[in-house]
Amino acid sequence: MSVNALSASPATPARDQVLATALRLFTEKGYFNTSVQDVVRESGVSTGSIYHHFKDKEGIAKALYDGLVLRMGSAFEAIVSQYRTPGDRCRAVIEYLFEMTESEPEIMAFMLYAKHREFMPEEAPICSSRPFELMRNMVSDAMDSGELLPLDPLVAATAVFGGALRMINLRLDGILDKPLPTYLDEVWQCAWRSVAA
Amino acid sequence: MSVNALSASPATPARDQVLATALRLFTEKGYFNTSVQDVVRESGVSTGSIYHHFKDKEGIAKALYDGLVLRMGSAFEAIVSQYRTPGDRCRAVIEYLFEMTESEPEIMAFMLYAKHREFMPEEAPICSSRPFELMRNMVSDAMDSGELLPLDPLVAATAVFGGALRMINLRLDGILDKPLPTYLDEVWQCAWRSVAA
DNA sequence: GTCTATATCCAGATAGAC
DNA sequence: GTCTATCTGGATATAGAC
């Protein structure tokens, strides 16, 4: 992926370098164990330059987060355009998440694993973000069309996606040796069977 | 619950005060946003006393964590003694987790939601801890006895417990207004249906 | 065991030349 | 826009009396 895709704002080389480095360090060591000096050293961008591009350390995290939420939202919208039935859409979302976890583990760790509110106190929980809203909509659509059992919509959504999200956690924690797509069919069968009418 | 239950080590009033305060602050503001001074102020125990009882700030977190893992392990072992079939055991585990989330949200937040390795670098991921091992065993037993479809054991375990764990996250994030036990039946039906033979 | 006072360090952030 | 040098606060942790 292009480093541009890390941010929602106009890209410059220095800015991109900082974002790419911060993403790596934030996921490797955690936000609080990463000092701005660490980012300076590993990105090759000076302190002054960093504070020229970002308001403060939190601003780096926010820029990363906003860019990635946007990117994931677009990906899910593309899935909605490409697939017609809610079931196909949900499956495609899980497939996308599994593939992203293998190809861009740092992004997935930062998006799904980090405790954003600890370092971005103003941020809404990620489950209220656009991509998660789209996921819940897919499940609600399926229920409205009668494909699913009549359940509390949130229960249905967690039933469909909860197992997959746990599998991603296990993979990022190094508990699963095989790549996630290996498990896609089984995971999907379980997920859908749990709610199918 | 008794504050004693927060730690695996011999209890003293000061020690317990510190642990109870730390649990609250660590979950409210996060480990890194909590200074030892905060704990001093809110526990009423002095800096010197805290460092007499604990090696360092991380030592407070470790004592908390070890005590809580032990406690949850015992609870699950009690469930294993009390219920005979794997299905009943799994359901009882979810019920226990749901009830704990309502009665002791801080404990559940600290156990299931915190990123332990960020502040306790030597700690194994929580999914390798005893309670999680017991959960996986319940599912494997069910599969061996033919109650479940033949699946990868880890896929089956995440299918059974993944939805419930996501529901706990949603509840701790304030997304669900109703107490978790309200959803227990639906969640359990989905979970078991996803893997039942 | 508990306390107060304090040492030490390093983080985040800024100043101001180029 | 980028850099180096520097300020300042607050954090962890210790010393040593009681």
Cα shape of chain A:
elongated
Largest sheet of chain A: none
What's the CATH H-level superfamily name of chain A? Tetracycline Repressor, domain 2
Total number of strands of chain A: 0
Estimated helix fraction of chain A: 55-70%
Tally the structural domains of chain A: 1
Q: What share of residues are in beta strands of chain A?
A: under 5%
Largest interface, C-beta within 8 A: A-B, 39 and 39 residues
Structural class of chain A: mainly alpha
CATH topology of chain A: Tetracycline Repressor, domain 2
Please state the CA-atom Rg of chain A, rounded to the nearest Å. Answer: 18 Å
In words, what does this structure look like?
- Two copies of one chain form a homodimer.
- By secondary structure, chain A is mainly α.
- Chain A has a single domain (3-193), classed as Tetracycline Repressor, domain 2 (Orthogonal Bundle).
- Helices cover 68% and strands 0% of the residues of chain A.
- The longest helix of chain A is centred in the middle third of the chain and has 26 residues, at 57-82.
- The first copy, chain A, is elongated, with a radius of gyration of 18 Å.
- Chains A and B meet through α9 and α10 of A and α9 and α10 of B.
- The structure holds a DNA duplex (18 and 18 nucleotides).
